[in-house]
Amino acid sequence: MPEHHNHTHGTQILGKRTELYFSLLCGLFLLLGFILATWSTVTPVIPLLAYIIAYVFGGYFITMEAATKLRKGLFEIDFLMIAAALGAAYIGSWAEGALLLFLFSLGHALEHYALNKATKSIKALSNLSAKTALLKNGEALKEIPIEQLALNDVIVVRPHTKIAADGVIIKGASTVNQAPITGESMPVDKTAFPDLQQIPSFSEIDKQHLVFSGTINGDNALEVRVLKLTKDSTVSRLIRMVNDVETQKSPTQRRTKKFEKIYVPIVIAVVTILCFAFVIIPESFEASLYRAITVLVAASPCALAISTPSAVLSAIARAAQRGVLIKGGKALEDLGSVTTIAFDKTGTLTEGKPSLKEVMAFQNFDKSELLKLLFEVEKLSNHPLAKAIAQAIKEKEQLVSANLAANVKAVQGKGIQATYKNEPVYIGNTKLMEDAHLTVSEAVKNQINTQLEAGETVMLVGYKNDIVGLVSVMDVPRKTAAKTLQRLKKIGIKNMIMLTGDHERVGQAIAQQIGLTESRGNLLPEDKVTAMKTLLKHNNKVAMVGDGVNDAPAMALSTVSIAMGAAGSDVALETADVALMSDKLEMLPFAIGLSRASKRIINQNIFISLGVVAILVPVTILGLTNIGLAVLFHEGSTIVVVINALRLLAYTED
Ligand SMILES: Nc1ncnc2c1ncn2[C@@H]1O[C@H](COP(=O)(O)OP(=O)(O)OP(=O)(O)O)[C@@H](O)[C@H]1O
Ligand SMILES: [Zn+2]
Fold it and tell me: What is its main location (predicted)?
């Protein structure tokens, strides 16, 4: 029953650990009672008194929980435990009853302690943020609480201090330790945004100019323009999301819960029947009751209840330490069971920062005019191809923006349309030209093929009813891509498929270089959806790794969506099931390996919990053990299961 492990009912008079102290006090009075009872000269009333006090301390929290649940009409483990303890008292086995309450409450206090430990690394995130910021006001600096920061405020970040807000660097260059958010241990180089006149929105700025609240500045001072309020910062949202994660149940958790719903009433029924065993077999009512209570203890599915949530939480905590946000038990279990992964190409398997290869003018169109057109139009688009083209031309030609382009509209999977000097312009693939009723001549087609042959991504430029030029770029695979895919294969991923909007041939070339099993090109976003549907039909569970640029619909459809570089992308962070905060593809085998390990541990835990019950129940029914041993094994398995789950906190890839 995961709920009762997540919060405590009743008093907290001894602070956060009241539950633990109460349990220890219970144990203390139990011991006292035991000593007094064996000390023959005292009257039996005195040890009894000690046992009663032990009952009060041991039973307090359990009774509170049982009562809350009873009010909701739920009979759960706590209720069973109270019944067992009261029954033990009735038959005069006060010591055993007190032992039961002691171990049960200790077990639970330890569970809570363990779970707190698991959530601690996540909760530590909330301590990440700086408390104050150095606000720059003209030349004056003023220290203010971060909550008072407003958008577009400029703050100064001194060397080796925490960055107090999400924003863009406007002055200075430094290295920043982003480990708290992305899990990357290497500091990242950051520079000022080049064009302070026109600062785009947060998610359109290249990450080398962005800083995040909670990360740590290196050797040089920075000036940062605040682009997000404290409550909306990446770290605040991370904390919020991780807190939500705890309340989402995994499929196994739901299944065990369902099982308990049927199982617990059966236990109650069997135990009730056992109370009347004396009717059939020659024994006293007390003997029957004793057996019934022992069976009750043995049959309680306490370990089962804690086995999955403790593993899920430990795994999520471990992932968070490495900059991987897994949003709940379902995502974790799905990720642990996929054997098929679909990848987006641009920005996922490739760097996403293509270099400009060729700019070619046709039809006597002036080349420098073509360059200018490309720069003006592409700088208005935030597609990675557009960014690369605009940036490269700008640097090469030393262009400054003249704002000659307007009305930019992205045509998904095809390119963009806009106006340049008030005339319609189209930049994109052949499909886009066809849509615009521009005929692609044989000569142009041949030129496209030449470029494709070299592995370049080709785009055409249609302007004033003519195809006036061609531009090609080349994106390179991430350095770690090939190795990562190899590792994925090793841990059991069978199908790795690339879904790209780029030309089939470019896709094939990249796929071969890095070792994908399959590549599909020329896909519009809706084709990616269709491809995903087909994959799901054949493989049942499919993960999709992407950046959300043109693959959001396909990602949404996948069993488990994985966003890369989520630290800079609001949408990806919010919508993906798993977010790799860093841009590091190599975190994928870690995340999947961890998920698989969790699945294994969950299965082991369920096996242990059910196994102990399966052995203990017949043994107790046959009267082969006493209540003390039943208590020891029952609570022992709970503790074993929790410790097994905690191993995930130390998970590393082999
Ligand atoms: N802003 C743009 N400027 C020029 N061409 C574009 C632009 N956006 C898209 N295109 C053209 O449309 C094609 C498909 O784009 P899309 O965004 O679907 O995929 P992609 O970025 O090439 O690859 P992936 O699907 O792997 O991310 C591109 O290959 C390019 O030819
Ligand atoms: Zn429990």
Answer: membrane
- Atom 22 in ligand 1: which residue has the minimum CA distance? 502
Centre a 10 Å sphere on the Cβ of residue 231 and count the other Cβ atoms it contains.
10
How sure is the predictor about 5, in pLDDT bands with cuts at 50, 70 and 90?
very low
pLDDT band at 2 (very low <50, low <70, confident <90, very high): very low
- The gap between the terminal CA atoms of the chain, to the nearest Å, is 34
Question: What gap in Å lies between CA 431 and CA 275, rounded to an integer?
Answer: 79
Q: Count CB atoms within 10 A of the CB of residue 481.
A: 22
Regarding whether 10 and 113 lie in a shared domain, the answer is: yes
**Choice between 18 and 10, residue whose per-residue pLDDT is larger:** 18
How far away, in angstroms, is 522 Cα from ligand 1 center?
9
Alpha helices in 357-441 (DSSP H): 367-378, 384-397, 430-435
Q: Which of 106, 114, 119, 84 is nearest to 19 (CA)?
A: 106
Atom 29 (ligand 1): residue with closest C-alpha? Answer: 502
Strands 466-474 and 495-499 turn out to be: unpaired
Residues 610, 613, 618: CA angle, nearest 5 degrees: 135
Examine the domain organization and report whether 16 and 153 are in the same domain: no
Pocket of ligand 1 (CB under 6 A): 344-346, 378, 381, 383, 385-386, 413-416, 427-429, 457, 459, 500-502, 549-550
The residue whose C-alpha atom lies closest to atom 17 belonging to ligand 1 is 413
Output the pLDDT for position 3: 38
Tell which one of 345, 350, 374, 383 to mutate to probe ligand 1, the residue whose CB is within 8 A of the most ligand atoms.
Answer: 383
Residue nearest to atom 21 of ligand 1 (CA): 346
Structure tokens at 43: 């009257």
pTM: 0.80
Q: Closest-lying ligand to the alpha carbon of 554?
A: 1
CA of 22 to the centre of ligand 2 (A): 17
Tokens matching residue 544: 């999709």
Look at residue 639 in the predicted model and tell me its pLDDT: 78
CA distance 458 to 452: 7
Here the tokens at position 570 are: 């609001």
Residue 499 dihedral angles phi and psi, to the nearest 5°: -115, 115
ipTM of the complex: 0.93
Site to substitute for ligand 1 among 377, 385, 514, most atoms within 8 A of C-beta: 385
- Give the CATH number for residue 144: 2.70.150.10
Q: How far is the CA of 340 from the centre of ligand 1 (A)?
A: 24
CA of 355 to the centre of ligand 1 (A): 14
Closest-CA residue to 242 (of 312, 165, 185, 166):
312
**Average predicted confidence (pLDDT) for the chain:** 86
Active centre residues (catalytic) = 344
Whether 359 and 470 share a structural domain: yes
Residue 296 lies in domain:
3-123+243-316+595-650
Question: Taking the CB of residue 218, how many other CB atoms lie within 10 A of it?
Answer: 16
Percent of the chain's residues with pLDDT above 70 = 93
